């Protein structure tokens, strides 16, 4: 196990988040955080001893907040809360998402405004460091009052009543999983149940993972589009920096600069000696459309950088024994960021599919064979690969409907406007997977088209992209099932390795 990452509720970055949830980085609570946590815990203990009415501590929850709970039942209240709220259904969340839940809950609680014991935070950290993954079903959160149902399933495992998911995807009773690692179930005390489940951790985990994956996907789409640009004999005029300067859009200039780097030295997309009309939008407007995606991604990155260190339970505790009731658990900001990023990802997919269609269409591909087939008719070439891209784009056209625009009231209308951010995150993850496959198809098809332009060569970056492709996917000499090639390319795109190899040869 590598050196531990200290968490304090204030300084967690996306890079650190990924190192824990996708890597082997261990976690520890920062010592100064433990002092703040202990101080806020004493506030809770004093409130219970004094019989003060405090939401979720000595009262019921939601529309039942007008019910008073006697001090001797305050701990039973927390246990009942976790049990009753573990109402999720559907497939288990992926391991990296659940690890994100554990990390974000521990980080938020360690800021010292939630009134839990240090031992509770340590129990969350222990699950991370022992790679114990609670079983958390995907469906059940409406993204307000926090991600209640998913976090209740996480808490259920923590107290030894739920289950863990082993490496084979099988569920193991939580009591058994804890015992195997020498850990004990947590016995919840006052406020600890509500602090565990009342937060935006699922939505934030979705967004943190998605901004990282979308950034890698945008870079891959840039490389694939550059290969297509060369293969379709695009005019570099549309990449002139002066256009971006007039548009007042730094993101447009950034994209155009990257494309110019990738296309540097090309014999195919060189300046034209004679006028040949204008390129289609999917070539001519690359800087403008990718700039829109860049802007949306920047918005999502800003939101997640703030939310990673947010305190999102209720009530929260301040000095002077003050309990402040509010709505930090509401996920509208996250839902809007997730929905905005979904729109940007869908643009990448649709933009890519249109270039794929042009590459295989003899009426539009500027002299290349139909479907890039070696013997059109006898061979179908990449005909059905374009069908796949179209099918995935159509699926995205359905999924891209903003979840945050579809509130439904809950808790007897006490919670009368919710964010639906958890569903926004779940469908975004599917859209990212689909779009990586669309971009993989473009990279494969454009690479084949680039080779058909020989002896002319493409730019330094497009030739690098072709070499990366050919290290995994063989040239298309005769028909074969393209599915394995597409999956291999999609994997290299999703993990960032293909772009890293191109960038090592041609910085962009």
Structure notes:
The protein is mainly alpha-helical and 508 residues long. It folds into 2 domains: 195 residues, Orthogonal Bundle (Fumarase C, Chain B, domain 1); 300 residues, Up-down Bundle (Fumarase C, Chain A, domain 2), CATH 1.20.200.10. The chain is built from 19 helices and 8 strands. The strands form 4 sheets. It has a two-stranded parallel sheet. Strands 3-4 form a two-stranded antiparallel sheet. A hairpin with a 5-residue loop joins β5 and β6.
Strand order of the largest sheet: 1-2
Give the H and E element order: EHEHHEHHEHEEHHHHHHHEEHHHHHH
Q: Give the total of beta strands.
A: 8
The H-level CATH homologous superfamily of the largest domain, spelled out, is Fumarase/aspartase (Central domain)
Name the average pLDDT: 95
Task: Report Rg.
Answer: 26 Å
**Corresponding CATH architecture of the largest domain:** Up-down Bundle
- Number of helical segments? 19
Give the N-terminus to C-terminus distance in angstroms: 35 Å
Global shape: elongated
Flag low-confidence runs.
Answer: none
* Structural class by helix and strand composition: mainly alpha
Instruction: Report the major sheet.
Output: 2 strands, parallel
The CATH class of the largest domain is: Mainly Alpha
Number of individual domains: 2
